[in-house]
Task: inverse folding
């Protein structure tokens, strides 16, 4: 498969949504959208961001978004009501694209802890790319690491990253 001209990989959240932007399978930029924790505020931030980047359903950009999953046995005990709110945010992201792909957390990282996942991703990045991630505040940086991991997983899974 030919690499995407632009791929947006998104780790949705009602508080801090991480976005990794890839061009031709190379990490170009990372963005962290923050809100006061309300789903409506995050949707506004998403609309502003994608609007300012000229992203709409008429453009042929690719998008991959993590979709939350309630794991009834052996999960982390996430409140299903919180997961519903995150799913709404994920849907708001996907609404900006004519086609998009959803992945679950276990699909793209296999249930590996966030610190280990970030370390593995970091090993694949250039110093410039690492600096982009490190510019994000530490307490919410994991959202950007996850977005990068989601994008890398998608590029590998679709063959567009080779």
Result:
């Amino acid at each position: 498969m030919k690499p995407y001209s632009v791929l947006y990989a998104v780790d949705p959240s009602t508080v801090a949504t991480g976005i990794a932007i890839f061009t031709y399978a190379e990490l170009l930029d990372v963005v962290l959208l923050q809100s006061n924790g309300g789903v409506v505020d995050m949707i506004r931030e998403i609309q502003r961001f994608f609007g300012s980047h000229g992203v709409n359903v008429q453009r042929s950009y690719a998008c991959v978004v993590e979709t939350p999953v309630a794991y009834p046995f052996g999960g982390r005990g996430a409140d299903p009501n919180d997961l519903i709110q995150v799913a709404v945010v994920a849907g708001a992201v996907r609404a900006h694209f004519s086609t998009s792909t959803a992945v679950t957390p276990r699909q793209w990282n296999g249930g590996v802890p966030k610190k280990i996942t970030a370390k593995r991703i970091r090993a694949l990045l250039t110093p410039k790319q690492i600096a982009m991630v490190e510019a994000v505040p530490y307490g919410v940086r994991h959202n950007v690491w996850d977005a990068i991991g989601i994008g890398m997983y998608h590029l590998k899974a679709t063959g567009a990253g080779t």
